[in-house]
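Schema walk-through. Below, the input block comes first and the output block second. Nothing else is stored per chain. Lengths vary across the set, and this one has 552 residues.
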Amino acid sequence: MARAGSGRRRVMAQIAMVMNLDKCIGCHTCSVTCKQAWTNRDGMEYVWFNNVETRPGQGYPRRYEDQEKWRGGWELNKRGALKLKNGGRIKSLLEIFSNPELPEIKDYYEPWTYEYRNLTDAPLGDDYPVAEPRSLISGKPMKIEWSSNWDDNLGGATEHGHLDPMVAKVRSQAADKVKFAFEQTFMFYLPRICEHCLNPSCVASCPSGAMYKREEDGIVLVDQDHCRGWRKCVTGCPYKKVYFNHRSGKAEKCTMCYPRVEVGLPTVCSETCVGRLRYLGVILYDPDQVTAAASEPDDTKLYEAQLGVFLDPADPGVREDAERSGISYDWIEAARRSPVHALISRYKVALPLHPEYRTLPMVWYVPPLSPVVDALNETGHDGEDASNLFGAIDTLRIPLEYLAEIFTAGDVGPVRASLEKLAAMRAHMRAINLGDAPDGSVAESVGMTGPEIEEMYRLLAIAKYEERYVIPTAAVADARRLEESAVPDTCSLDHQDGPGMGGDGPFGQDSGGRKRLPLVTVENFHVLRKRQTADEQPSAAEKANAAPEEDR
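--- output ---
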């Protein structure tokens, strides 16, 4: 592994996320709570920092995965060096005032409300009043034709399913692998947020330098004071998770709920996830290997190349190098206990989203296996038997080729390996739950031991709150300084036409504002955390201590 000039390896840390798609029920709670916390204001009506897509489906915005059209991410030039797919500096300069590769509102959807006064104020008569839809942008009557969730539960799949770019790829390679006849269809849910990539193309695309990746935790943010609204970042992001606020003229994106993370709390989408499918933790990586990994010429090897960037926090040499690089002991310990590191690097069941974009994404996914169990049970076979499960993986309703196009740039091998480990886990734990001795050959067949499978089961199935969200508490030491540095005169969240639009901040009336309201204290965050993780309701004294001084 490459070392810095002094012979020491440079180490950096990143907050990362894993989502277990086997547990997502498509309830959209994560989307609604994120919307309420971060984008519930003028100019952001169509914006969903978190959205849940039904696959197959076109996604949000429509067909965002078609990079031949949208030109997002990176590609290799003739010399094998990385370059933005949307072109270099000269092309960007020529298009800076008129960017042709930019999704229009119809690719997202025109947000609407309903004319409820027609219902409440209609005069008595023989006809039935109707609350007609009205655009939240123009205020005029409109016809609803699309939304962020139009494909939900395969809505219209028989008519629109072939427009999914991944379906088109699979069909071109494997003929009729994907069918939309009722008895042959399949679906799963895919929650998406910003990937907070190691090699973010949105940051490289920004002409004004407003987008940046934080050194301390790897979170990608937009400096609202420096953003000039060129919207090149929207094009540059292949996941289309950067949005343009048409009211403020600024770009905005998922912030990984950094005010919560800084004080040891998980993101809002993680906190409110009904299926408990999200995991947050620290990944240690070698930044000097990022460019080499992203420059791997073979798309199907990009997954393994990114795995090679990550470092083992249990390795004494890595820990020493991390300390020399200025990473605190708490962060190193958090990396050692990280559920994200375990699922990605130790068990290798989590996979990246579209590694072929070469951004090295840091939100990974455990692919779905559930439908195969039900399908086997319906045929009269034991859906939890290892031999049945292993044999059925290649005949899943969800074709391996389709999953591979999403998670491993078309390489079926890592997808099959992940699903086989999940199948082995089910067979192993079924034996234990029935009081039988587990068959050791099942674990060996997937390169694991019985204790490893049981540890993986605990993490994927029954892990407690503190096991799913291992956020370094070292951030708490700087939380008050970070909070108090964001006084209203310098914080851009609440200035005229800024994201806050002069109203309440993201954490209520005390979180910013021109009126110099009291700041949200770190103590409030910790009382909130205790309340969210406790088995009992807080006492009256605890509630009183959590209240702002003017309310006491």
